[in-house]
Amino acid sequence: MSSLLEGLSHEQVAWVSGYLAGLGAAPLAVSQADHVASRSEVTVLHGSQTGNAERLARALHADLMARGFAARLDSLGTYPTARLKRERVLLLVTSTYGEGEPPDTAQAFYAFLMGERAPRLEPMKFAVLALGDRAYERFCQTGRDIDARLEALGATRLHPRGECDLDYEEAARIWAEQVLKALAAESAPSAAPALRLVSSGPASDRAHPCPATLVENTRITGRGSSKDVRHVALAPATSLVFAPGDALGVVPRNDLRLVEVFLEAARLQGGEKVSDTRGGETDLAQALATRFEIRALSRPFLAHWARWTEAPALQAMLEPGGADELKAYVGCRDLTDVMRAFPVEGLTARDLMAALRPLAPRLYSIASSAKADPDHIHLTVGVVRYEHQGRLHRGVASTWLAERVESGAEVPVYVHVNERFRLPEDPATPILMVGAGTGVAPFRAFLEERALLGATGAHWLVVGDRQFRQDFLYQREWLDYRRKGILQRLDAAFSRDGGVKTYVQHRLLAASREVYAWLAEGGHLYVCGDAATMAPDVHAALIEIVARERSVAREEATDYLHALMAEGRYQRDIY
User: Fold this and answer.
1) Least CB-packed of 85, 86, 118, 447 within 10 Å?
2) What is the rounded distance in angstroms from the CA atom of residue 129 to the CA atom of residue 46?
3) Which pTM was predicted?
């Protein structure tokens, strides 16, 4: 690469570096001595849990470089906070996960910024793009907190904060364009480089999924299990590039049985004409089947319905003190339940469309290594079914894959790159993997990959589920790895075997000394599972382990784990 850059100016080298970084490649090194100071220098920071914020930040950085700005790109996890007081223009893109929590990579930066050690920032100009999910009460909370704190520290807002829901692409694009326009007005950039690179872009993405043929759909829980978990294999029509830790986005269709009861509850026929994505018209029933979320209940939908019905019960849940009640209500109901309980007279198709969110793709951790099976992508799919008030509720994508997609039929998919959940570059590095339920999926890919690479680093797997006989997912594969010496240690916890419920965090606590030694000696730790209970419980157990084994206070133990997150040695894929 260096020979290809000979003869280019430093600005051109910087531009190429930024462009490649925007495509996901490693940035090129430019020596500090060669750096030319510019009043248009911009720093772009990202805090990302699943990779969306990082992708947007990389694209923004590449656009800045293409327009001639001297721009730096960094993660909040690795950004040196001592530099903050010297920044003149700061653009920050961050997500929020769970109930208003900062992403793992942003936790140390967030704590610093909110704490007493944060410096005054009068010379700085900034803009924040916040990603979130309006289904949560504390929508975009991390971005809002950082935006307000930067202003409180004396920085000047270059452009108002942008806020993005799950369908973030268009809102993010508009925000970026406005920020670039504001920057152009503030400071004339240096001359744009003559060099231009042409990229074909990814083979598929969220807006342009790739068809994949369903070739396997096998139940891997026992007949007596209370859960239905499937091993699904898909054959993409074109080659998709993915790495262990990535997820597969599945673009589902709603169950036509649900569309029928939904229309009945809305008191609409289904033949009403509504606009389609191409500016034409389609039937309401077709739009509901393919384009809109009609199962997962969200705060925005309840806000629309509370306004139309003026129902005190709905309005109370949306008040600041109603968060717990709202969470419990949303957890077991869908939109049809609400429409039946609080009917609206004279609802039009246009009114209904305004209350609905787009049907979002569902992400599944990829459970295979491309090195082991280059022609297929494997998934571990927990099928969602439960009964509430006499109605059977079904998961949108899980039951579509399990029940309605026939073998040989096509499923629209794309690879969701997750740079925040990656194997260590050095195959000699030991790894400790903790997964509960279908959270074991990425570790199947990890072990396949490391086995083929001949990794010399030790492997320790901790898995959890309900019952040993019915729910020990991939048991034969784990035991085979154990027999071959690839998996040095395997611990399992089954919560419904015996009188006392045992979970993965209990296995970690029981091996406290070994867990800490693993980390102290340079091992990497991976956690995959649900964000509501499993991930917080495991994190709390790790704090207890570090505090106990280092003989330190919980605050210092928490800082230790935040440092591991910043170093990329403690990574979580939680949902």
Assistant:
1) 86
2) 9
3) 0.82
